[in-house]
Design brief:
This protein is of the alpha+beta class and about 220 residues long. It has a domain of about 140 residues: Butyryl-CoA Dehydrogenase, subunit A, domain 3, CATH 1.20.140.150. The protein has five helices and five strands. A hairpin with a 2-residue loop joins strand 3 and strand 4.
Length: about 220
C-alpha cells in the first residue's frame, strides 16, 4: 500500500512537470526588456519567447509571431526543438507511467512487467528534465552575458523572464518524479514475488500427501 502511494506521488510530480513543460514552451516571457526612453511618459516592456514577441506600451498589449524560420538565430531554433521534444516525451511518459502503476491492473497485470515499465518511465522522466534544463539555462546564460556586456546599448539589454524560472522548477519536478519511479520500482518486484508463490507447492511437502509403499510381510511356514 505504501509503495502504491509513493508511485502516485511520483506520478503527480511527473504530471506537474508535464504541464509545466507545455506552459514554458508557449510562454513569451523568456526574455524581458524594460527600459525608459528620453521621454519620461514613454514606457515600454518587450517580451520575447520561442514563438512570438510581445510589446506592452502603457495600456496597450500586442503580440506578433516570428515571421521567418530561416531568419531565427540558431540558439532559438535549438531551444524550440528541445522544448518540443520535451513536450512529446513528457506526454508519452505520463501514459507509460500510468500503465505501470501497481494500483492499476489495466492494460498490464504482470507485476514484473509493471516494474520494468516504471523503470523505463522514470528514466525518460529524468531525460525530459535534463532536456528542459538545457535550453532554459542556455537562454539565461546568454541574457546574463549580454546584460553585463558594456558594448550592448541599454535598449538591447534583457532580464530573466518568468518562463525561465518556471522552466527550472519544471525540470526539478520531472527529475524528482523520474528518480522516485526508478527508486521504487524494486518495491513492486518484492511485493510481487510473494504473489507468485503458489500454496500448492507447500501442500506437496505435507506428510499426508506422501504416499507410503505398503510393507511386504514374508511369512515362513
Amino acid at each position: 500500500m505504501a509503495c502504491c502511494t509513493l508511485q502516485m506521488v511520483a506520478l503527480l510530480l511527473g504530471s506537474i512537470g508535464m504541464v509545466g513543460t507545455f506552459t514554458v514552451t508557449l510562454m513569451p516571457q523568456w526574455k524581458v526588456s524594460a527600459f525608459t526612453g528620453n521621454n519620461i511618459i514613454v514606457f515600454e516592456k518587450i517580451w520575447e519567447g520561442l514563438w512570438m514577441v510581445c510589446v506592452s506600451h502603457i495600456n496597450k498589449y500586442q503580440c506578433k509571431f516570428y515571421g521567418s524560420l530561416l531568419a531565427l538565430p540558431p540558439a532559438l531554433e535549438a531551444s524550440r526543438g528541445l522544448m518540443c521534444t520535451a513536450c512529446g516525451l513528457s506526454a508519452v511518459t505520463f501514459l507509460i507511467a500510468i500503465a505501470g502503476m501497481k494500483c492499476i491492473t489495466w492494460p498490464v497485470s504482470n507485476e514484473q512487467m509493471k516494474s520494468k515499465i516504471l523503470l523505463a518511465a522514470g528514466g525518460i522522466f529524468l531525460l525530459t528534465g535534463v532536456i528542459v534544463l538545457i535550453p532554459v539555462s542556455l537562454v539565461a546564460n546568454n541574457i546574463i552575458r549580454d546584460f553585463y556586456n558594456p558594448v550592448n546599448p541599454l535598449a538591447r539589454k534583457h532580464e530573466l523572464g518568468a518562463a525561465l524560472y518556471l522552466g527550472w522548477i519544471t525540470s526539478v519536478f520531472l527529475i524528482s518524479g523520474g528518480a522516485m519511479f526508478c527508486s521504487f520500482c524494486h518495491c513492486a518486484e518484492k511485493s510481487g514475488g510473494y504473489r507468485y508463490s503458489s500454496p500448492a507447492s507447500h501442500r506437496l511437502n505435507k506428510p499426508e500427501d506422501v504416499r507410503r509403499k505398503p510393507l511386504s510381510v514374508n511369512t515362513y511356514v
